[in-house]
Amino acid sequence: MNANILVVDDDETVRELLEMVFRREGWGVTLARNGEEAVDHLSRKSFDLMLTDLHMPRMDGYSLIPKALEFAPDMPIIVLSADSTLESIDRIFRHAIKAFLPKPFDDVGKVLKKCRQALELSRSHRDLQEKLTRAQEALSRVRDDG
Known about the structure:
This protein is of the alpha/beta class and about 150 residues long. The protein has helices at about 10-25, 35-45, 60-70, 85-95, 110-145; strands spanning about 5-10, 30, 50, 75-80, 100. The mean pLDDT is about 85.
């Protein structure tokens, strides 16, 4: 499965670890230290998945998520954060976040599994949308001919 991933975190260790894990999967990886850098990347390139922290300097994840969805409304987003209060989780899930994984994470395999699931779900959704569009076009042609 080919994928283009955007990782947004102010923690260099987290960024480098995820980059290494995702590249081993054969995925393209772009790194950003904060929301402003992420928006810059999103304005120039499309991504299949974004992972983001919530608390970062300059632009936090709470502000980034709606901006990211303006560029790519169907892009799955996974939040990685040490902030697992009910209020913060409620706030991010209003934006159709695919998963919340608390930091620090001791099992990178769990992060990778959530990413694979989000990518697969997104691809299945896109495939179904394409099939529906083709079916609607075919039905429209039949009605026009009949």
